[in-house]
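Below is a filled-in request sheet from our internal design queue. Each sheet records the structural input a requester submitted and the sequence that came back. We keep these sheets so that new team members can see what a complete request looks like end to end.

REQUESTER: design group, bay 2
PRIORITY: normal
MODE: inverse folding
CHAIN LENGTH: 179
BACKBONE (tokenized):
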């Protein structure tokens, strides 16, 4: 179910959900997370709302933070930013970085820069920190991890010297599209 959900294949996730029930299996929190993810990734915010509301009443599964996060993400993708923010403030869980990231991204995508600033202020007030970026590369059988702003890599001086060299070469030669 999870693989279909990540691809936004809502139809397959729903089919598996009902097949599972027909075979005597009870849906659990992960089944509903797959349903909500599929709805979010396929743009079916109204259907996501239906699944979230029936979890406890119809199936006895208590919605958790990740279920609310998924629904908030579905709402922001649909442009329902104000509603998503209101839900983030009133849901029975403290909004985590994933919720705030979803709100920030939606505000930016929809060009609501004043709201981006407002969400960032709320994040600071609540002590939520955005996680820094990370990259990694495997070179000659060894994995090298780089964190945004980290200056602790054992070959940091070599890396930054090479970056400066490349930057100068690009400035000198210019760049060409498609290269």
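RETURNED SEQUENCE:
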């Amino acid at each position: 179910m999870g693989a279909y959900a990540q691809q936004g294949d809502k139809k397959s996730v729903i089919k598996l959900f009902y097949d599972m029930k027909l075979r005597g299996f009870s849906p659990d929190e992960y089944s509903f997370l797959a349903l909500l993810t599929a709805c979010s990734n396929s743009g079916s915010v109204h259907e996501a709302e239906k699944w979230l509301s029936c979890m406890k009443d119809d199936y006895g599964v208590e919605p958790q933070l990740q279920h609310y996060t998924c629904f908030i993400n579905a709402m922001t993708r649909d442009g329902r930013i104000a509603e998503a923010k209101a839900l983030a403030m009133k849901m029975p869980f403290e909004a985590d970085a994933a919720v705030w990231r979803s709100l920030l991204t939606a505000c930016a995508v929809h060009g609501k820069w004043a709201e981006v600033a407002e969400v960032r202020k709320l994040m600071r007030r609540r002590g939520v920190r955005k996680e820094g970026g990370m990259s990694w590369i495997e070179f000659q059988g060894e994995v090298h991890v780089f964190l945004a702003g980290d200056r602790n890599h054992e070959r940091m001086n070599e890396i930054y010297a090479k970056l400066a060299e490349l930057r100068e070469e690009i400035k000198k030669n210019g760049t060409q599209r498609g290269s």
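SHEET NOTES:
- The mean pLDDT is 87.
- The first strand starts at residue 134 and ends at 139.
FILED BY: M.R.
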